[in-house]
Amino acid sequence: MELSALRDEMHELFEQVDQRFQQVDQRFEQVDRRFEQVDQRFEQVQRQFAELSAQIATEAQNTRRHFDMAVEQMKAERNVVLDQSLAARERLDDHERRITRLERRK
Known about the structure:
By secondary structure, the protein is mainly α. It has one helix and no strands.
């Protein structure tokens, strides 16, 4: 084979290699674009998680306040019932003493 034929063949092979490199570069660009899309999705998910966490914290505070108010109301109602029960007990004890005194008189 002559030198010029070898040179032409080598030039053709280098052209093929260059074309392959261009194809690989294009594929890398496609992959880069896909990674950018994935990164954007992850950022969106992170924002949504942050918003959700904030909502959960707000709802937890609201629930806690409501629960505290409900407990206070129940304690107040319990105290009213206890006071009424004690008053009734004292009244019954008073009636019992009066009946006992009346029975002793007979």
